[in-house]
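Morning F.,

Quick status update on the modeling queue. The single chain you submitted on Monday has been processed. Sequence for confirmation:
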Amino acid sequence: MENHEDHKHHGHKHGKNGNAKDSAKEEAKKKEEQLKDYLVEKTKHGHDDAMAKEDRSKMDHSKMDHSDHGGNVPMGMAGHDHHKMMVADFRKRFWISTIFTIPILFFSPMIQEFFGYTFLLPGNPYILFILSSFVYFWGGWPFLKGFYNEIKSKGPGMMTLISMAISVAYFYSTATVFGLKGEDFFWELSTLIVIMLLGHWLEMKSVLGASKALQLLVSMLPSEAHKVVGDTIEDVKLDELTKGDIILIKPGEKVPADGIITEGSSYLNESMLTGESKPVKKELDNTVIGGSINGNSTLRVRVKHTGKDSYLNKVIKMVDEAQRTKSKMQNLSDRAAKWLTYIALAIGFGTLAVWLILGFPFVYALERMVTVMVIACPHALGLAIPLVVAISTAVSAQNGLLIRNRTAFEESRKISALLFDKTGTLTKGDFGVTRIESVNEKFSKGEILRLASALEQSSEHPIAVGIIKKVKADNVAIPKPENFNAITGKGVEADVEGKQIKVVSPGYLRDEKISIPEDAYSDAAETVVFVLIEGKLAGYIALSDEIRPESAEAIKTFKKNNIRVYMATGDNEKTAKAVSDKLGLDGYYAEVLPHQKVEIVKELQGKGEFVAMTGDGVNDAPALAQANVGVAVGSGSDIAAETADIILVNSNPKDIANLILFGKATYNKMIQNLIWATGYNIVAIPLAAGVLYSTGFVLGPAVAAVFMSLSTIIVAINAQLLKNKIGKK
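Structure tokens below.
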């Protein structure tokens, strides 16, 4: 949050009939489902490139925006339930292929020999051929289609490997039926396809699950709102709301749009939006966020943001963009998967050649090649990073951490120094006036407060809010300002009742060579602003800001993780030192202007620190951009901070601790998945090639398929465990 010196100010009728209401609800629900499907489809998964290139090319995200549930759904979104359809398709192919595989196994001579029974039908090889042909062409179709897409895009990958494995098995076995000497392995072909289908089905279910948190965000807005029109209440679709409309929110209902309370007070549940578990009290002039749930009282709210400008839509857009953004780790896994494909193909054909050179039958050499290609399939590697990305961004959003820059989030584990703004972050930002003093006998204390309030009445800055709170408590009429102007980083000025009034920081007085009264700072915890009338000091207003109880706990967490904590504030040296000493900070910078914070960041970086900077995302833009990790903190209205890498919905320092620790946990999960996915292949490929043949151990294609699918499932489960890491100390 910006410091105080920067006042960059700082029982009813229904007007619609029943049928229209039902129609509106149905249309809103339909569009909500389409938006959910779109967001799910956009979640990256291991074989997304192979199977959905055409779909993604039609869905140029840069040409789209997210509107609210009642708004217009972006072009092309209808029908984009691609991922859910794929899950259902793999499930169906798995079960039907399994039904066909059972008789293939039962009538296979090799299986009968293994279990010691004989049950051969007339034309047994042809029966196996017909059943296996169905399994190959219908059950294996997703892999064959993926192979075609990969070759067409000149990017052979896992689908190429699977398709070559099952195709070699099928056509070789078919040749044995029609005269080629050798034994078929239709049973291995069919079980391989069934296990591959099972692995893909389970994997995609995991990916689908990773988007559930995002779907919950999407579904948080109601389908309609109660719009106040004169003395009546009309139920309207959300896209019919405009800025300035008054809406009624009943107890227990979801808030349909961002707005400001004009009547009533209530406790609102914002946990799904901010991660704040306790209901938050909201009263007159307080902001409410669309998607939060009203508590025990009726509210009237003036709409502030709707559609794409709403807080919830910005959250959805950020989460979606973060999930689609590739980080360094993801690029690494993509390169590894690509090279593994080439290596597997080379080893596969090399294995075939080696076994043939050693004098083994072609069918045996072929089986070794097929096994290598199956087990080397980099499916787990393709899934390792994208699934962690999908889960971490969605879970973060639920806990009030909005990730705009994936790389910065993952690199938060490197943070060695954290530069905090004081007001509203380490402190509550809830200022109360403690003293009003006059230094000019022409102006009373009450007059100084009254004139100052004229400049502060439109500001949301904590200092201004504290002054206005005092004015209202004293029932003072606030005069109207004219020619209002912000003095960058130092205060505000305006004409009030014919007089030029300025409310400024101590820094302004020093710059203008105006002496600061000796008794201005009577208490170390006070913040003081000075009131100038016609260029002369008339008095000052002192306010106190209580340190957050969570700050001390957060500082302990940072120090436990070897992170040095510094504070930058526009407050005077005495106040800054008092806060620093109480919290046990590693250092502080007092009387700092917003533009000077970037110099502090550079200074820390010059000492070899990996710096995270917290600020409000507007006036702290240079410092946020300069920092290794820029963290914008504040209310819902601040989430569009373009220069920040990560945005915290609340200003709670514990959230920053959660951010850093969750970033570490996310990175660790990525490393774990990469190690498992690559390590598995390093061990499995030699086994598949037959290096332990002399010991009697031979790994068959079907068993290889089991291990390949198991590897994918383990990676998916490990990624899901990330959900338990948020907020862990």
